Structures are given as C-alpha cells and as structure tokens.
C-alpha cells in the first residue's frame, strides 16, 4: 500500500539515484543479487544480535530492491526472468530476516511461524491472481492491489530491529493484516470470477 500510494511521487528520486550513482554501472540482476546478499547478511546480523548493523543491511537491501527495477526501466532492460529472480529473492530475504529473529528470540517462535504461514497464503493468492489477469502496468506481471507489500514488511522489520522488546506484538499485528489481506483477495477474485 505504501509503495502503491507513494511510488508516483518518489520514483523521480529513485530515477535520479539510478542515473547519478554507481547503480547505473550494474545490471538489474546484479542489483537484485546485491539486495539478496545484503538481506541474507541482515538475517545473520540479527541472529548475532547486531541489530543496528542488521538495520543498515536491511535498508540497503530494500534500496537495491527498488533500484533493480528502476535500472531495468531506465536502461530498457526489463526481463521476465529478472522479475522472477526478484520475486524469489524478496521472499528469501524475508525468510532470512525471520530466521535471524528466530535464532535471536526463540521464545517468539509462534509469531515467526505464523509469519511464514501468512506470507505463504498471501503470496499464493498474489501469484494466482497475476496468472488470471493481463498486465496493464509497467511491472513485469499483474500486481493486484494489497494492504501489505514489501515496503510494509520492511517497515515492520525495521521497527522490530529498533524496538526488539515489541517484536512479538509488531509481528503478530503484521501477520494478522497479511492473512486477512490475502483472504480479502481470495474472496474478491472468487466473486469476480462468478
């Protein structure tokens, strides 16, 4: 939701970053790889209780996640396989972060397991919807609107890193929203197909 609402206003900033920084020297897939590596190391830093380092790595991963698509569009180098790699990489970064939290705070395992269940359900409804509808946007696949997307996940992860004492509550609220958002999409698509 954050990305959908703000992307029009902030995309010129990302375009500027893409045109004036070292990002322009990398292919989109290499930037995706940077996002993945940085995100995995963020999870490792969380497991080691280096929370501020983890936050910096996570934010860099998020920046790279935005920049891979930006560079692809700026260089007219969009590829379906790049979008595929990006989607998989994003989920693996989220998994690495949650696994890091699981190692750091095993007492909160219930919230971490529910995260995987909620994201699995939500992402499945997203992918199934993208197959059913033709893409009319600049994205590589059809993106159904959603209350929670990558930006919201990164916001919650960042808050968990800044305020670890509230990690369980923050993640449980997020899990609930993710699950009900997926449920809403499921019923919306079923009703539209009748």
Largest sheet: none
Determine the mean pLDDT: 87
Q: Which class of secondary structure composition applies to the elements?
A: mainly alpha
* DSSP helical segment count: 7
Radius of gyration using CA atoms only = 17 Å
Spell out the helices and strands N to C.
HHHHHHH
How many E strands? 0
The low-pLDDT segments are none
Beta-strand content estimate: under 5%
Helix amount: over 70%
Distance between the termini: 27 Å
Overall geometry comes to globular
Characteristic key phrases:
single chain; 194 residues; mainly alpha
Describe the fold and architecture:
The structure is a single chain. This protein is mainly alpha-helical and 194 residues long. It has helices at residues 2-20, 28-47, 51-74, 80-104, 109-132, 150-162, 167-192. The longest helix has 26 residues, at 167-192. The chain is globular, with a radius of gyration of 17 Å.
């Amino acid at each position: 939701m954050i990305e959908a609402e703000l992307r029009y206003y902030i995309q010129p900033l990302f375009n500027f970053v893409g045109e004036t920084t070292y990002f322009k020297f990398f292919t989109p897939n290499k930037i995706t790889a940077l996002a993945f590596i940085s995100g995995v190391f963020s999870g490792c830093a969380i497991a080691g209780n280096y929370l501020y380092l983890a936050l910096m790595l996570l934010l860099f991963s998020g920046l790279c996640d935005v920049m891979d698509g930006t560079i692809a569009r700026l260089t007219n180098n969009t590829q379906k396989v790049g979008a595929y790699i990006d989607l998989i990489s994003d989920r693996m970064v989220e998994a690495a972060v949650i696994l890091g939290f699981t190692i750091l705070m095993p007492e909160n395992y219930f919230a971490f397991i529910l995260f995987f269940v909620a994201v699995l359900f939500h992402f499945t409804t997203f992918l199934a919807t993208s197959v059913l509808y033709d893409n009319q946007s600049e994205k590589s696949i059809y993106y159904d609107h959603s209350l929670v997307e990558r930006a919201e996940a990164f916001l919650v992860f960042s808050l968990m890193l800044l305020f670890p004492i509230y990690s369980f509550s923050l993640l449980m609220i997020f899990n609930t929203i993710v699950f009900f958002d997926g449920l809403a999409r499921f019923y919306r698509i079923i009703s539209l197909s009748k």
